[in-house]
TrEMBL record:
This is 4Fe-4S ferredoxin-type domain-containing protein. It comes from candidate division WOR-3 bacterium JGI_Cruoil_03_51_56. One of its GO terms (cellular component) is membrane. SUPFAM superfamilies: 4Fe-4S ferredoxins. Residues 48-77, 83-112 form the 4Fe-4S ferredoxin-type domain. Keywords: 4Fe-4S, Iron, Iron-sulfur, Metal-binding.
Length: 213
């Protein structure tokens, strides 16, 4: 009997703080946000919906290399001659690795956080296409034009040490013939070294022409 009385005495009585909150809610309404009628503000560093500056992107693929969930994908579209960068939003965990690794600050977080939709739509996939550059020897694509131009401007005067970068830069400003200018002419229309080549073919050309291997 004594034990039963002790158990009864341990029953907690309503706390004054909780009672006060209940009374205030009667007159002021519940303490909840007004979302979606009124969107709450977020911190400036909030990692919300990811977006990309298409004009800044160089198609280097750094974002796809660091993405832990494979939310970013690089696809070579030979029919259109472009490197396609795809962001699969449904796989993204908004960790910010792609933002930190982008060399040109093309990817950025927004303050948007409302991703709820009733069905899958185009908002779940973002695509950016960049023109491909093909090796004049093996014919395979090895980089995007935007990436090579970015490197050429980055290295400055040292661009003269790399014929591929030099030719891409001169073609962009209109002082060098296009890549297909030598078609129909006897090979080579330029020396083997002064051609747009992938790293593997450039190594072969240098070894053959300079060392006679």
């Amino acid at each position: 009997m004594i034990k039963g009385l002790a158990d009864m005495l341990r029953i907690p009585l309503p706390k004054l703080r909780e009672l006060g909150e209940a009374l205030r809610a009667v007159f002021t309404g519940p303490f909840t946000t007004k979302f979606p009628k009124k969107v709450d503000s977020v911190h400036p560093n909030f990692r919300g919906v990811l977006k990309i500056h298409e004009e800044k992107c160089i198609g280097c693929g750094a974002c796809s290399q660091v993405c832990p969930t494979n939310a970013r994908e690089m696809i070579v579209d030979k029919e259109k001659g472009v490197m396609r960068s795809i962001h699969h939003a449904e796989r993204c965990i908004y960790c910010g690795q792609c933002v930190a690794s982008c060399p040109v600050d093309a990817i950025y977080h927004t303050n948007e956080f409302d991703l709820a939709e009733t069905e899958r739509s185009e908002n779940w996939q973002t695509e950016v296409d960049k023109e491909l550059v093909y090796c004049e020897m093996c014919g395979r694509p090895f980089a995007t034009k935007a990436q090579l131009l970015w490197i050429a401007h980055k290295v400055g005067d040292l661009v003269n040490a790399n014929p591929t970068l030099l030719l891409i830069l001169y073609q962009d400003i209109g002082t060098a013939p296009p890549t297909d200018a030598g078609k129909g002419k006897e090979f080579p229309y330029r020396s083997g070294t002064m051609r747009i080549l992938c790293p593997e073919c450039r190594r072969k050309v240098y070894l053959h022409e300079e060392w006679g291997y």
